[in-house]
From TrEMBL:
Residues 7-109 form the HIT domain. Gene3D superfamilies: HIT-like. Signal peptide: none annotated. It comes from the Bacteria. Coiled coil: none annotated. Pfam families: HIT (PF01230). This is HIT domain-containing protein.
């Protein structure tokens, strides 16, 4: 897509804490390795960007379109009560947008999830099931082979 994408590198913290599910036109889709919440992250594959406003207007629009597609897909798949979307960047400076499906019965409700409880890791088979379920809902350009 752009010169910045040719040198794109995912921040080490995101690599360590998530599974790569696949790439959309602009963003890499990650599943956070925490079974307590259906928690996904979109990372625009553009280097040295930490805020959405730093993206050109057409790329911002594509970013929000992909966020909307992901939102629709995960709310349909997980039947949540609420969807939290946030681009915090306080710990990881690389632009990334969290999409967390919330339930009124989850362990943190109604508080934010950040840093409340240790992450509960997925089994590989669970990640594969989630990826396969999303395969039909999202326009992946490249899928990770799990």
């Amino acid at each position: 897509m752009s010169q910045g994408q040719q040198t794109f590198k995912l921040h080490l913290q995101l690599q360590d804490d998530s599974y790569w599910l696949g790439d959309l036109k602009l963003c890499r889709l990650l599943l956070m390795n925490d079974t307590q919440f259906p928690w996904f992250v979109l990372v625009p594959r553009i280097t040295e960007i930490s805020e959405v406003y730093q993206l050109p207007a057409d790329i911002q629009q594509l970013c929000w379109q992909e966020s909307n597609l992901l939102s629709l897909a995960i709310m349909q798949l997980f039947q949540g009560d609420k969807l939290n979307i946030a681009a915090l960047g306080n710990v990881v400076p690389q632009l990334h947008i969290h999409h967390v499906v919330r339930y009124t019965t989850d362990i943190c409700w109604p508080a934010p999830i950040w840093g409340k409880y240790p992450m509960q890791e997925y089994q590989q088979s669970e990640v594969v099931k989630i990826q396969q379920a999303l395969r039909n809902s999202l326009p992946f350009e490249q899928m990770n082979q799990l």
